[in-house]
């Protein structure tokens, strides 16, 4: 049961860099991931979409429009076409030249001790093979990965095909019983990824009792970060990992 690996008491929440360090660098680019690593993240969160030629492109939206200088739907383009887009200059001129990375490249660039939370976006398309292929045959990669999605049926299918794949349930609602919901998935759940507004002390206690990590998203303001630290969550997803790290060091 992969959930059992996460039951141990922790001294502080994991610092989880949202789309890298998206508050300070263009989201989901190598510059953002390497900044998050430099700032001391324990884990980085990123988003993947499938390209027309079956590759996993690291980008949040279904299209290139918002975060690059090109337009068009990711699944309608080959990765060669997508890689021509500039994914940095929209954020700041000094990031010109950043590309939409492949998931494969992120695994190679991010040091082994940093975990990776791969969010498979809605509209991904259903075929689990490309995602599974990214992990199969590489025990180290599997070990450092949590796959999350708002599509819980997709996660259950992935875990059934590879039972040691750690899955994280991503959702926004204020559930009656967060850990109880994980219990009806029919497969082990490693982590809960609720919106940070939607949990309280009882939810955190129940998740701990169930041996499930709780990684709320996406808290950026100091007051919100402090509330989550005080709640004792297992990890905090933030656009400003450096801010969270400083707060943890000062507490
Ligand atoms: O994984 C947490 C968070 O990233 C989910 O929402 O839209 O930022 O991908 P979004
Ligand atoms: Ca995400």
Automatic annotation (TrEMBL):
Domain of life: Bacteria
Protein name, UniProt field: Glycerophosphodiester phosphodiesterase
Database matches in InterPro entries: GP_PDE_dom, PLC-like_Pdiesterase_TIM-brl
GO biological process: lipid metabolic process
Any one GO MF annotation of this record: phosphoric diester hydrolase activity
Record-linked PROSITE patterns: GP_PDE
Residue stretches making up the GP-PDE domain: 13-248
A Pfam family this chain is assigned to: GDPD
Classification via SUPFAM superfamilies: PLC-like phosphodiesterases
Native source species: Paenibacillus beijingensis
């Amino acid at each position: 049961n992969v959930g059992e690996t996460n039951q141990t008491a922790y001294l502080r929440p994991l610092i989880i860099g949202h789309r890298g360090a998206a508050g300070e660098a263009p989201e989901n680019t190598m510059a953002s991931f390497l900044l998050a690593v430099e700032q001391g993240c324990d884990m980085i969160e990123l988003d993947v979409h499938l390209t027309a030629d079956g590759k996993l492109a690291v980008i949040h939206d279904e299209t290139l429009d918002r975060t690059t200088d090109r337009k068009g739907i990711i699944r309608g383009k080959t990765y060669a076409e997508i890689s021509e887009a500039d994914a940095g200059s929209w954020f700041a001129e000094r990031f010109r030249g950043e590309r939409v990375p492949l998931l494969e490249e992120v695994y190679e660039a991010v040091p082994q001790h940093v975990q990776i939370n791969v969010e498979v976006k809605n509209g991904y398309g259903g075929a689990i093979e490309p995602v599974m292929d990214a992990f199969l045959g590489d025990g180290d990669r599997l070990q450092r990965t949590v796959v999350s999605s708002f599509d819980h049926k997709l996660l259950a299918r992935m875990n059934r095909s590879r039972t040691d794949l750690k899955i994280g349930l991503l959702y926004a609602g204020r559930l009656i019983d967060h850990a109880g919901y994980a219990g009806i998935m029919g497969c082990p759940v490693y982590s809960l990824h609720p919106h940070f507004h939607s949990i309280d002390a009882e939810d955190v206690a129940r998740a701990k009792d169930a041996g499930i990590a709780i990684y709320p998203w996406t808290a950026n303001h100091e007051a919100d970060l402090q509330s989550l630290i005080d709640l004792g969550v297992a990890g905090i997803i933030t656009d400003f990992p450096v801010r969270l790290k400083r707060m943890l060091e000062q507490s």
